[in-house]
Amino acid sequence: MAAIRHTLQREIFMPNDEKLLSVCYVSKAYKKKKTSFLCLTTTTDTPGVLLLYQVKKNDKNVFKKKQSWPLTDIQTVDSVTPDSLDLELHIDKVYKWSATTAQERRTFISNLYTYSCSLPQRPTFKNIPKDWLMDPVTLKESDSISFTPDLLASPIPSDYQPITDKEAADLATLMSGCDYAVSNAELFMETLSKDLSVLDGENVQSVLASETQVTQLMNGIEEAITEASLVEARLAVYDEALGRIREAMARVGQKNQAIHTANHNARLLLEQLDAVITQLDIPAKHQRVLSEAELPGGREELSLAGTALLKAMQAPLPPGLDRLGAVSEQRRRLDKLKAKFSLIVARHLNNLFIHLGNDIGETPASTTDLTLPAHQTVHRELEPYTELMRLLRALDNKAFMQLTKVYTGTMSKLYQRDLKLFFEEAKTRLIGKRLHNNPSKSSGQKGEDLVPAAPICLLGGEIWAPQGEGAFLDSVLDRALSQMQPVCLAEQAFCISFLQLDSVLSPSKGSEADEVDNMSNGATSPGSATSTASKKLERQLNEEVRATMAAIFPSLEPELNNFISYLDKIDSFWCMFVLVRLSQHVMSAQDTGSFLSMTFASALVQVKRSFDKFMQAQLQSILRDTKVNRRNKCGILPYVENFENFARTAEKIFKNSDRKIDLEKWYTKLVSAMFEAIVIHSAEHHKTPQEVIKMENFHHLYDLLSQLKISVLDHERKEAKQKYHDALRAYVIQYFGRPLEKLNLFFEGVQAKVGAGVKESEISYQMAFSKQELRRVVKEYPAREVKKGLENLYRKVEKHLCEEENLLQVVWREMQGEFIAQYIYIEELIQRCYPDSMVTLEFTIQDILEFFSEIARSH
Known about the structure:
Elements: H1 2-13, E1 18-28, E2 31-43, E3 50-57, E4 63-70, E5 76-78, E6 86-90, E7 94-99, H2 102-116, E8 124-126, H3 149-153, H4 165-176, H5 185-209, H6 211-280, H7 284-292, H8 299-313, H9 325-356, H10 376-382, H11 386-395, H12 397-437, H13 470-498, H14 507-520, H15 528-552, H16 556-566, H17 574-592, H18 596-624, H19 638-653, H20 660-684, H21 690-708, H22 714-736, H23 741-756, H24 771-779, H25 783-800, H26 808-833, H27 845-858
Parallel strand pairs: 5-8
Antiparallel strand pairs: 1-2, 1-7, 2-3, 3-4, 5-6, 6-7
Helix pairs in contact: 7-8, 8-9, 8-11, 9-11, 9-12, 11-12, 12-13, 12-15, 12-16, 13-17, 14-15, 16-18, 17-18, 18-20, 19-21, 20-21, 21-22, 22-26, 25-27, 26-27
GO molecular function, one term: phosphatidylinositol-4,5-bisphosphate binding
Protein name: Exocyst complex component 1
Region (Disordered): 510-536
């Protein structure tokens, strides 16, 4: 430490006129490798300033000042505990260091306290023993040390040792007899030399006088050396013996460790063997039950024994123990017990399935409605064997699958019989209703021959009216579809439970179940992977359920399709009834998760195709049927008249149905086809003017679409109205013509002259258009002749129009308006071109109104 003090003073503080007072080698608390020096210094000027430095040595082995604080900034000096090496200084923050030695820490803290005594505001010293702290102010005058300011300049060395009391007394005695030491130092030195010579002589005499004691001492030392040699030899013997003992004890420890390991291994082996024996062992009573049980009496005991057998066979064994001979032998015993269990259960249930195959079903005794028998008796009879089926599936999947085939085969025969009778009953009811509505049919005929075929092309050339069996057909169809769902649902629920369709105990599904378990335990991503595996198992379960139900109900879809096809003979709208009802039951079956939804959906596809085919036939019948009666008035075309019955019946069937969109797609096609067909038919008919055919049929369609209020046909309704008005206007223009023809020709010439540049006021000067010529033409149209011509026109219009549409008055009013417009046109030209001629027609607008009104009333 002295060399470091010298180095620090020379390299760090002397160039800055500073003097090192105390130093302490410290390190950061809890960071022993970060070391530095705490240095207490003072400046050489007067008065000196006390400073505290932290000095560190850099990578180039050179001391550098890191931080500095005036001693007046130190607030607290804390040694934490007297016995530790820790030191805390509270300055701008708390600095924690750890000293290398306790003596350095004590000396540094004492110097800090001593030098801080002269400060106006000294630090607070905590957890520091009082004997470390010496306050110069408290020294008494009797003390041998007087406190002067120079004391602050003398550092307290770290190797300082205070004198003892005896030394202090001797020193005081010596100094008391040498009062002249200050005034005569040479005399004092001679006195000291004489005293020293006297003391040396006395010491020599004392040594010579004690020769005998020295001899005795030397002899004692030699004897001690001899004894020590003996003790050393004996200790060597002991050490050698201890070495042999140490080796023996090490061997004993190794043997003890080996014994301990062997005991531990034996204990573990015993536990493993005990676990194997416990897991693979089956109580004797269960073995007896598995060997001697008979069903149905011992069903519960057999279930308990089967559970114990399954537990033993599925017991997990430690790796390697499954190759033990005893384990293999026990496994063979378990296989024999499994075979006996499988034989007992399979034989009894096989016989029971065959016996229950004669079940007649359950139907309410009091109801007269169409009912499909249920087989709840079979389910109740088999439900107690559900647990045995579960155990059989886990123990012998082959036998379980064979039993499943027997059950599905037996039940398929039952349901095939029931479904056939059920649909035959439905057909019989429909036939009975049709015969009731057609009593003229021969009583000698039976069955389907009695049912007349329903028309296919309802919008063709024949006028038809809808039959009355539609509501009855709909009720029978709804009843038939409704009866199938509870029966299928009950059978599906029973199969899921009894045939373990929702179980993962079978060996074929074990890997997938393990996969789901691993995913749920975090073996793979627990989010999407778990969801994917769950969906995979769900799909497999649904497929297994559908396969089982398809095996039980193999005749359901053929019988249903056959019944639906039969409806074609009953009612022309059969496909609409079936489409609506079947769609409702498909949604209901999907909501309940029934297998029936797949069958209904398949039938719905076929019905939709039949519906499209039926509607296509209507469309083709409109475009194809161009034969009209050319000898009589045409009137309303058959497909236009039939469309009213067709649309009203279809709207009633599809009311509040989600399948109405299928009908609306065809509405636009049918109406557009009728528009096209009306134009074609009007051009081919020669008896009735084509404008009348268009007018009456488009008016009929417009009126019908306005009544039906079918939103998808709004555009067609507006188009029909426009076509009706166009045809009405064309008819009026063509057949009303110009009753004042000569006047119209006269004024056409006037208009031509005006167009050529002649002024209207100069027209009367033209020879061909003079006032005299105008009077002559006007006289040719007296009121009586005009009225007679209108009567002839009314009779002609009356012959053209049909009475059903009642458009005669509409056409007559339109002609009245046309006549008035021509009259006004002629009167205006007379007023402009012949203002002073006093020429007017013999009749007025009021006369025209009276002519038209009288003619309409007279007819």
